Please model this.
Amino acid sequence: MEFAKLHGLGNDFIFFDGLSTSLDISPETAQSLCDRHFGIGADGVIVVKPPVNEGSLGYMHYINADGTLAQMCGNGVRCTAKYLVDRGYATIDAGQARFIVDTLAGPKPITCTVDQQGCMTEATVNMGAPILEPGAIPTTLSSNAHTPQGEAYVCRAPLTSPWGTFEFTLVSMGNPHAVCLLNHLETLPDELFLAPEHSLANLDINRVGAYFESHEVFPEKTNVEFVVENPDGTLSMRVYERGCGETLACGTGTCATLVAAVLNQRSSCKNTVHLRGGDLLIEWRDDNSIAMTGPATQSFIGVVAL
Model:
């Protein structure tokens, strides 16, 4: 079976074309394909299937590296857009392509910039409205704050750990996120850092992230983001993804980070978020939708026995 390897800022995926042929990937096969030593290596497998809703171009069926099904992936949906555009499935007009991709978190409208070779260079995805209601995230924590519009949410909820207490603001973008806005890195214990300097870059995220991913207050586990505000007002974020571990970028996590930062009065409604794999521009629009703008890249294509 032919596959393509794509990534969004280093968050990488193995793609299969399920539009012209019926294809189902088992959890065990996904785990094998994603293994970076014995397989192709990736954060997940995406099968592009026929659309679920009338008017959509395709459906993104996304399986995490551990074999679990994911509701949504922001980098994955941008890569899906590139997969569709570069293979001629999308209509291009005046250097742009506009279409809808179905996901388990609902349809996502996308606007793509296309180069002279007909390949997508950048995509803006309407990620929909953030979900703040605790039961819908889901979490067993109770709301402790309200937005200016009166919507209840969980803000800076303290959760204890072997390394002290961390505060999380909870957001769902179709999948759960626990966002920790780090105020005083210097107060965290030395054992949480992989080098003497107490910085976001040196944080042992695979240790602390794994702990909170499976915390009892998250019945379906959660993605975990650690964030600092930069002197220029931009944000820097690292993410421990549910079912993957740390990834170089997370689209939904970046959206959740912007929402949490705005709710905590740490950011404007439009901001650049710096990730280990690059930058994403996120905007919380007046209609309550979140727009995510960023690139997607094809690394290579190949053939694998399934």
Summary: The mean pLDDT is 96. The longest strand covers residues 164-172.
